[in-house]
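Supplementary material to the annual report.
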Amino acid sequence: MQPTKKAPKVAGTTGGQIAVHWKEEKYYKPSGAFIAQANLTDPAVNKRFAEKNFPDCFIEYADMLTWSKRWKSVLDTNAPPFWKWFVGGKLNASYNCVDRHLTKYKNKAALICVPEPEDEEPVTVTYQELYVRVNEFAALLHDFGGLKKGDRVTIHMPMIAELPVTMLACARLGVVHSVVFGGFSGEACGMRAADSRSNVLIYADGYHRSGKMMDHKAAAEIAVATAEKEGQTIDKVLVWRRYPGKYCSAAPMVSGRDFFVDEIIGNYRGKHVDPVPMDSEAPLFLMYTSGTTGKPKGCQHRTGGYLAYVTGTSKYIQDIHPEDVYWCMADIGWITGHSYIVYGPLALGATSVIYEGTPTYPDAGRVWRIAERLDVNIFHTSPTAIRMLRKAGPEEPKKYHYHFKHMTTVGEPIEPEVWKWYYHVVGKEAAVIVDTYWQTENGGFLCSTKPALDSMKPGSAGPGVPGIYPIILDEQGKELPAGTAFAGNICIKNPWPGILQTVWGDDERFVRQYYSKYCKNPKSKDWHDWPYFAADGAMLAADGYFRILGRVDDVINVAGHRLGTKELESACLTMIEVAEAAVVPVVDDIKGRVPEIYISLKPAFAPAKEIEDKVIATIEKMIGKIARPRKVWIVPDMPKTRSGKIMRRVLAAISNTMDTGDTTTLANPDIVEEIRQHVQGKQKVKTQEGPEDLKQFGKEE
Ligand code: 6R9
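Predicted assembly:
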């Protein structure tokens, strides 16, 4: 493969196609040492997973699992786009991640949990220990929690061993877990608990973060009240204590509702719970994510297809062997943590590291000390974390004796410069890098290089992974061939086992969001007529590598985490003072994008710093600190079209000192200069071109 010499260089937009210009990067090759030990070295994989072998190619992944009953059909397409995978099969995810490893790996570390305080020793949980803990907690959930197959449970916990124990205990019973990221607010947790109709919440009392003990149980109170307001009663709150016997929260325990797990788990000592054989299509978990409307949607993932897909991709793309020490620094509260900290690695019998705290606490060397001490050889993180570590200590990795064979980046586009630092400094030119592109909805990877088989190209995710056939479509649904100067919408032509089953409780939204845009014939039962729309802009280079440009919808990707602009705007509108709100993404050196908020006030209110602060507090309360805006701008009016729509595109251009484009057609064109001066100052500021996703932001409005 040869890189194309010169970058495509056309500007402007023609016929719904997006022209982009960027420089082609040179290739990097995996080392001989990596290839010699890799799981996937046979180039015949491309043939095995080629379209003519679809869908049976995925039997290769399903066969990595232990089934209590084998499936009858691999893919059922009778009710598009509600695909069914490995229909008729039965299995249990907890059995696959725990029990089946006991014969060989009983005494091997399943989890190594690293507390944030450096004077606390890492805690190793062997597969035997995990088996005991999962069984005991499953018995508690069943007998004390009253939970059974098909019920939903909402889990709001930090990065401690008890989180995967809880998830696996649910899976053992066939209880559908819905894990809410620990950094989200109690209100966000309560909304999700209500939507999923959970009546049990599982919490931790506190955890260490950036040197502080966070009072997490306090959020439970708000979660319960929020769920109640939404019509959902929470009967029980089970609280894991960070230090059993010692309560780390100031929030009172409500008698008859709140229970310390460490006080009751003793009643279940040594209890065994038979893993419930689940239908392949039974839901395993829900994972809420932001979309184009105000309300987050519960992505519903199936048991058989999902587990097969994350196991197969963990083996082939993450190159996980049981001997490896694998550390994914994501949070289990996001999809990356579900698929590539818990389910994929444990299904393969690997050792998965869980770190409680902040990567740069107490200093920029922390991550590398953990890697050195545990002898981590597979490392998985996000561009935001890489940028942060690079900024805090560019020379730091060199001081430590760790040896990565493989590194992953996920969650947002990585700049080639940042990629190169990751490769040269963190990976010490010995580790391969996979840039894995995928989404909460997808269960597992969509695009990535195969680490021992494909060359790496900084900034490009790579081709579709085995069995995934991505295409780029323009707004009219025309396929853009490889190697053109144009970007379009990345779509996946075919179904795959990891795809979400539906949006929990909202089949209609599922179809509308992912399939209606490009469905060729709504009556068709042929999957070829149902490409999956990912809502990401991308382009396809001549070599077949996809480069992801970012979201084309109203989602802002902050530090690899999705926030819906509408979600943030709805939060602002709960304030009595606010008449209108518009949220735009702003480029940030570390986090990629961060939100800025524009508000206009109701006539009775005058602009004041207190109102700006209240907006920030409202966002933190309703969503969480992760959504904290960089700035709140109070403006006299919003730039609007004649039909009264807020032009977010113009506001995004102002926040990013980009050209505001043609504003003459606005109903109130003069407001643009007024807002510009308010944000940028009286002086005219030189505008810059800005990244592709921002050039596209709000275009459709
Ligand atoms: C796994 C995860 C999904 C969105 C997705 C895209 C962006 C993810 C990426 C990437 C460029 C990559 N994204 N991986 N962009 N290169 N390797 O992150 O899921 O939280 O749902 O986010 O993240 O925009 O649409 P999720």
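The CA atoms of residues 241 and 653 lie 47 Å apart.
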